[in-house]
Structure to design on (451 residues):
């Protein structure tokens, strides 16, 4: 006559009975559910990246070649900066879990200390990401595409059969002035004579940039610098298609735009999570400072915001592996 | 309805406060996990720099090593830092089970489709 729904259920097993099905508070369980759905979103993004990469017939840039600069230093340090960012985020996750632990002991001053350090770590990570984005957008010299097929010999005697449409990369100093020159900046002049290409900036701080070498395969395995006459044959075969750094329309890193688009979207979406995490951390920090948790007699709010913060760290661990390492 | 996040004397596992002595043991575990995570990250970066990409079996093995090490890291973060290891088994399954099911499937299907797409591009370009 009546189904299961009409049966009387003991109040003991309902939320209204003051008991949770999972022995956690409502707020904590909902935080877990939110994180489950958010993790599915990030999984979708990373899987989409995997799809693009698996289906790409053009060369796909590799992390060690693209991300090898350190702020204020010349030279190459493959993945060092990303490793530093990862370490900063792991350490801030540790200070967060220490804040949660201190909360379980009702030790207000320790919660304040560890949460404060977590917020500082979050700002360090955001700052690092800002620098990385800036470096990625500006690029490291730019490239031009060849207008015709050229065959050049590398320093080891290896012969490179370059075809029209292949990218050839300039060094940082030359590329910087070249970008200004192509943009129509009248203070930059280009002179070519006797196998020398020189760009001269006549502004307040006049200086020259000589074309010393052009690089092949810069962002994939097998980077080679070509100099001398072979370099000039590459230079003379250039088309008008130059790319400097990356934006949403153009990229020096790869023929296909999807590589930089995924970089912007995935690290940007993660960075937005870090940013909101820092904001929520600051709010809870001031709740602790204002003794809100003391009145509640527990620090579960710290634990909930901690879950979110660890999740941000967790996502970065996967981004680090799938975007930078593999 | 009473807000359960304001309940003072509930019996939820993680609202239960712990003593100074228990805190020492928990902190020891936290520092241990920190060390493990840092060492794994350093090993991953080292491997990424040392080994060159190629079509060989070595690089495939390295890639799988990266993935396995990453899953280890994720496991430590979720089970220790996020305390999922201390929660009820039901909650643990509700959080983890969707991944083995949906994401495992999604990865399989996207990589299979991606590889097929790659073949088509080569054929018709």
């Amino acid at each position: 006559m009546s189904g299961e729904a009409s049966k009387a259920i003991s109040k003991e097993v309902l939320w209204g009975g003051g008991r949770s099905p999972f022995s956690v508070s409502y707020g904590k369980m909902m935080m877990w559910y939110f994180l489950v759905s958010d993790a599915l979103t990030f999984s979708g993004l990373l899987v989409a990246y995997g799809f693009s990469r698996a289906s790409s017939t053009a060369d796909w840039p590799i992390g060690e070649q693209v991300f090898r600069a350190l702020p204020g230093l010349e030279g190459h340090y493959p993945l060092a900066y990303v490793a530093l960012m990862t370490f900063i985020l792991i350490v801030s996750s540790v200070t967060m879990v220490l804040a949660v632990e201190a909360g379980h002991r009702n030790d207000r001053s320790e919660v304040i200390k560890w949460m404060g350090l977590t917020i500082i770590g979050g700002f360090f990570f955001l700052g690092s990401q800002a620098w990385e984005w800036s470096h990625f957008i500006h690029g490291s010299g730019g490239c031009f595409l060849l207008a015709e097929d050229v065959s050049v010999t590398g320093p080891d005697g290896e012969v490179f059969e370059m075809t029209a449409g292949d990218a050839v990369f300039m060094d940082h100093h030359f590329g910087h002035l070249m970008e200004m020159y192509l943009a129509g900046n009248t203070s930059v002049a280009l002179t070519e004579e006797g196998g020398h290409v020189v760009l001269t900036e006549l502004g307040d701080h006049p200086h020259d940039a000589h074309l010393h070498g052009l690089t092949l395969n810069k962002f994939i395995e097998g980077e080679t610098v070509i100099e001398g006459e072979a370099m000039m044959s590459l230079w003379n075969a250039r088309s008008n298609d130059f790319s400097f750094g990356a934006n949403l329309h153009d990229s020096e890193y790869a023929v296909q735009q999807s590589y930089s688009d995924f970089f912007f979207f995935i690290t940007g979406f993660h960075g937005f999570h870090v940013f909101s995490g820092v904001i929520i951390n600051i709010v809870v920090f001031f709740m602790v400072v204002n003794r809100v948790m003391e009145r509640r007699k527990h620090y579960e709010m710290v634990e909930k915001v901690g879950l979110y913060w660890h999740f941000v760290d967790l996502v970065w661990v996967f981004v680090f592996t799938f975007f930078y390492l593999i | 309805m009473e807000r359960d996040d304001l309940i003072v004397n509930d019996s939820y596992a993680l609202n239960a406060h712990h003593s100074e002595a228990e805190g020492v043991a928990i902190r020891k575990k936290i520092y241990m996990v920190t060390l493990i995570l840092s060492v794994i990250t350093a090993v991953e970066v080292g491997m990424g720099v040392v080994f060159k990409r190629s079509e060989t079996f070595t690089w495939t093995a390295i890639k799988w090593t990266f993935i396995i090490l990453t899953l280890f890291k994720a496991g430590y973060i979720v089970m220790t830092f996020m305390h999922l290891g201390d929660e009820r088994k039901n909650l643990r399954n509700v959080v983890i089970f969707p991944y083995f099911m949906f994401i495992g499937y999604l990865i399989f299907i996207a990589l299979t489709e991606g590889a097929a797409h790659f073949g088509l591009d080569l054929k018709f370009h």
Chain B touches chain A through 71 residues (CB under 8 Å).
